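task queued by scheduler; priority normal; single chain, no ligands, no partner chains; default sampling; output format set to structure tokens
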Amino acid sequence: MAKVIKKNLVLSDEEAALLEEGKEFDIIPNDKGIFLVIDKTIIGKKEGKQVCVQVPALDDEKQQVIGLIRKGSLSELVEGKFEATLNEKQKKALLELVATQSVYVFKLNESYKKGVYRVKEDEAKESNREKKESEDFNAPEKEYKDYTLEGDGFLIIRGKDVAANASYSYHKQIKEGLLRGIKSFDGNYYLIENALLGAYINKIISALMQKNPQTLEELARAVNISKRLTKIICEFLKEEGELMEKKKETYAYIK
């Protein structure tokens, strides 16, 4: 990410690689929060003439990047690491999304050198999202088959064939990053709304940073969500290498 420090423009390695060393460039405002970096030799050749620069819309690439951010794990969305997974057009689209604040970098703790990418629109949706029954520590425990996406924000699926059918039924939502699925070591398959998962991942990590390790019940009480929902979120965090289960239903944050 480029930064201006005392009139100096500091570029990341990825951004610097896009520019030829030793050349001079003009920076021209193009749109709100968006600037064009143009090789001065092009302008010099066209002195006295209007310089027309065609800027690709990159709308498809922007949607691709937003989809990747929504579907990505915390470890995949870290600054620098995420850019390495993108093609050149997607990298340019990401720069535009950040410039217009459609995408931003979130740091769980200021001591972290790098943050993770998030979609601004999702933050607004979260504030208006209707609360699920599972977003309460005192939510009643139910049979696994009684949990629903509409009421609880997640499904618990048992059996490989049933999981395959669910994956097919919800293929579009999974592809768009609205739902995420995982197979747990307990043999269950979990399908959860990405908005619900995103709302509590950082809260669970923050709770563990205050007291580490904690039992499932302690974590659920600290974040004020059901133990079932807490367990599902912890399964995703284990998969991402953020947590470890020291013993059954006792979780530790990996610093």
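post-processing summary
- The chain has a mean pLDDT of 82.
- The longest strand covers residues 25-31.
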